[in-house]
């Protein structure tokens, strides 16, 4: 068949950052700039990077949020792929969902106060909005005064967000990224748990009900292939790595934990 009749495709890789200190402590993190743990750094180097190298994936640009756990994961992944020269674009619109006044509290602690059903609704429900963060929260001023958020336009700095609000926030930047992919740019998006879910909804056209059941483990590359002419997906997503490891880590994400 002549090459002009062959379908031209391009791949996109979506990835949640490595374990953060708040992941380890099982706390709601959101817009607090929690760093990676040593294990989180190891996940980026020993889980994500080898999976990408084994699949012979390469990148022209990496998108992250402005939060350190996102940027550091991307930096470690690229370094271990010998691709430290690949440019990174940090965008505040790709920040984790803002968990409002839940920020800084252990999930089990909140479940003991409000009940497990309410906590799971706040964590996984599409339109369930946690209480707004207030000045009594120890992280309120830490977040509001963090210079990494200087580019957030006036009136757009969230005090809390539902999953649906996060889906809406990332839509404009997703449209920009998708256009790059369809133009042939090889893109890695290294972001956060709820942001990866929001992007999955946009990419896969998942319903509001179905996205509530999607759980994304740390450092597992999720690969998509696009028809560059039509913009449509070619097949479904492929998670790179050991299936049993992925299954175990996905279950941990879904649970409220200790």
Helix content: 40-55%
Q: What is the approximate shape? A: globular
Nearest-angstrom radius of gyration? 18 Å
Strands across the major sheet, in which order?
Answer: 3-2-4-1-5-6
What is the β-strand count?
6
How would you characterize the largest beta sheet? 6 strands, mixed
Unreliable segments of 5+ consecutive residues: none
CATH H-level superfamily title = Phosphoglycerate mutase-like
Query: For the record, what CATH class applies?
Result: Alpha Beta
CATH fold-type name? Rossmann fold
Strand content: 5-15%
Quickly give the CATH architecture: 3-Layer(aba) Sandwich
Mean pLDDT equals: 93
Order of helices and strands: EHHEHEHHHHEHHEEH
Tally of individual domains:
1
Total helix count? 10
Query: What structural class is derived from the secondary structure elements?
Result: alpha/beta
Q: State the end-to-end distance.
A: 58 Å
Family: Belongs to the phosphoglycerate mutase family. BPG-dependent PGAM subfamily.
Catalytic activity: (2R)-3-phospho-glyceroyl phosphate = (2R)-2,3-bisphosphoglycerate + H(+); (2R)-2-phosphoglycerate = (2R)-3-phosphoglycerate
Protein name: Phosphoglycerate mutase
Active site: 17, 96
């Amino acid at each position: 068949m002549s090459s002009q009749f062959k379908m031209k495709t391009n791949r996109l890789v979506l990835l949640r950052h490595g374990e953060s200190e708040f992941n380890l402590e099982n706390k709601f993190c959101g817009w607090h700039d929690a760093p990676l743990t040593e294990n989180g750094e190891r996940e980026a180097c020993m889980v994500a990077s080898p999976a990408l190298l084994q699949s012979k994936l390469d990148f022209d640009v990496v998108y992250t949020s402005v939060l350190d756990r996102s940027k550091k994961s991307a930096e470690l992944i690229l370094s271990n792929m010998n691709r430290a020269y690949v440019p990174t674009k940090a965008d505040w619109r790709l920040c984790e969902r803002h968990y409002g006044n839940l920020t800084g509290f252990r999930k089990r602690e909140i479940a003991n106060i409000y009940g497990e059903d309410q906590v799971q609704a706040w964590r996984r429900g599409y339109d369930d909005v946690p209480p707004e963060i207030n000045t009594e929260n120890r992280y309120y001023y830490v977040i509001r005064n963090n210079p990494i958020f200087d580019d957030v336009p006036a009136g757009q700095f969230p005090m809390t967000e539902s999953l649906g609000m996060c889906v809406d926030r990332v839509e404009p930047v997703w449209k920009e990224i998708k256009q790059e992919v369809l133009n042939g740019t090889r893109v890695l998006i290294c972001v956060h748990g709820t942001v990866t879910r929001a992007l999955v909804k946009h990419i896969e056209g998942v319903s509001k009900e179905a996205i509530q059941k999607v759980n994304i483990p740390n450092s597992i590359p999720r690969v998509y292939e696009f028809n560059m002419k039509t913009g449509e997906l070619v097949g479904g997503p492929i998670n790179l790595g050991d299936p049993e490891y992925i299954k175990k880590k996905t279950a941990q994400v879904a649970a409220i934990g200790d």
